[in-house]
């Protein structure tokens, strides 16, 4: 009975650290930017709606920097959190050696899944513009991808995926597996992973990605597999955010859509077949 209280409490703690640090860093950033704005306007302390808008825009343009700072602060906090369970941080995250086969499969899954999602979003945009979708999806992506490219690449493409894998496929999935079957744990962690994106469209495909990442982790027993998949997805998205599809490539977008779906599905099935996952094969 004790584990049914302890595990959910720990999951809430892990999520609190994830959100809490980002909120804290955003607040500090907002205060600093407010002082900078006031100083640049000859010390005028008259805070108006225009001031708030200017500061808000400045903060939003630095979303990637805020994320990067939050990750660097969060990592040692998760290391401290691991002491609560009296387990080693490395063992909780299961940083075990990955085979060449699983490395290639993970890379293939990540790249093909990224291409598939990008093309699906492109088709959705032609039917229903992304900037009209509730939650301001288009604006959110522009804020994240619109800052300094190097910082965005580091925060969104590299460190973000690693941090999220440590939290969701490492800490959270481990606790869920203590109180429910593996298949259910994989689904619940994917739901949580989707919900934390706080946007209808992003949450939808993040849930699918979360399922793939959970299956890859359970099948390979190493966090390196979902990290490679997640890195592939995010880095490709960051790179392609600065590129536009040529007219020649657009002609074959539907073929690429089907091919990327089949390749990503095949690679994750091959990876999952290595181990029977409590009903997931």
Task: Tell me what you see in this structure.
With 281 residues, the chain is mostly helical. It is 78% helix and 0% strand. α3 packs parallel to α7, α8 (182-195) packs antiparallel against α9 (200-220) and α9 (200-220) runs antiparallel to α10. The longest helix is centred in the first third of the chain and has 38 residues, at 3-40. The chain is globular, with a radius of gyration of 20 Å.
Global outline: globular
Structural class computed from helices and strand pairing? mainly alpha
Count of extended strands? 0
Helical fraction: over 70%
The residue ranges in which pLDDT falls below 50 over 5 or more consecutive positions are 277-281
- Sheet-strand content, in percent, reads under 5%
> Helix-strand pattern, N to C?
HHHHHHHHHHHH
Q: What is the straight-line distance between the termini?
A: 30 Å
User: What profile does the largest beta sheet have?
Assistant: none
Mean pLDDT equals 86
Determine the number of helices (DSSP H or I, runs of at least 4 residues): 12
Task: Write down the Rg.
Answer: 20 Å
Write the layout of secondary structure elements.
Layout: H1 3-40, H2 49-61, H3 63-81, H4 89-93, H5 100-127, H6 137-145, H7 149-179, H8 182-195, H9 200-220, H10 224-240, H11 247-251, H12 253-272
């Amino acid at each position: 009975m004790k584990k049914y209280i302890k595990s959910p409490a720990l999951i809430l703690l892990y999520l609190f650290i994830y959100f809490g640090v980002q909120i804290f860093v955003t607040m500090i950033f907002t205060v600093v930017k407010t002082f900078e704005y006031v100083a640049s306007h000859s010390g005028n302390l008259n805070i108006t709606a225009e001031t708030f808008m200017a500061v808000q825009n400045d903060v939003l343009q630095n979303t990637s920097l805020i994320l990067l700072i939050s990750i660097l602060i969060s990592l040692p906090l998760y290391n401290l959190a691991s002491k609560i369970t009296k387990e080693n941080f490395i063992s909780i995250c299961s940083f075990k050696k990955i085979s060449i086969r699983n490395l290639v499969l993970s890379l293939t899954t990540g790249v093909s899944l990224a291409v598939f999602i990008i093309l699906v979003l492109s088709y959705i945009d032609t039917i229903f513009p992304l900037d009209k979708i509730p939650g301001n999806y288009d604006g959110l992506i522009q804020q994240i991808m619109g800052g300094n490219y190097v910082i965005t690449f580091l925060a969104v493409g590299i460190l973000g995926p690693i941090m999220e894998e440590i939290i969701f496929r490492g800490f959270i999935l481990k606790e869920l597996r203590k109180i429910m079957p593996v298949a259910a744990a994989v689904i619940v962690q994917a739901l949580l992973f989707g919900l934390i994106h706080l946007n209808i469209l992003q949450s939808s495909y993040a849930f699918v990605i979360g399922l793939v990442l959970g299956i890859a982790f359970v099948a390979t027993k190493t966090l390196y597999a979902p990290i490679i998949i997640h890195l592939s997805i995010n880095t490709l998205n960051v790179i392609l955010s600065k590129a536009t599809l040529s007219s020649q490539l657009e002609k074959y977008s539907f073929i690429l859509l089907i091919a990327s779906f089949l390749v990503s599905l095949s690679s994750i099935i091959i990876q999952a077949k290595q181990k029977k996952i409590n009903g997931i094969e």
